[in-house]
Amino acid sequence: MDLSSGMAQAEAILSAKTRTEGEARILESEIRMDKGHCGDSESIAGREEKLPKLQQRADSLTADIMKLAEDTADRISESHKTAEKEPSDYFRSNGSLPVNLKFHLHNPLSR
After folding, report:
1. Nearest to 25 by CA among 45, 50, 5
2. Is the Cβ–Cβ distance between 7 and 76 less than 8 Å?
3. Domain coordinates of the chain in residue numbers?
């Protein structure tokens, strides 16, 4: 996965997390209002069962975002380590350079 697709995935997860947290806040408000008005206890019970599931889903999405952030940081770190190597480190056993490095070494616009 490249970094741009990782960002797109993180944005999608964050959007789902925001929607889930919003739904949980609305549900909490509805429960409080129903309890204050002595509403249907069956309706309240159903909402009270749904609330922890929404909160758990939001927590799971937070964990997904954190994992994705860790993976992205690792890829960036690895990319920096690779870029810092001396050109001599890229020589293959047959003495040739990989094609992508040859391009960068011979193309001044690629720097």
Report:
1. 50
2. no
3. 3-110
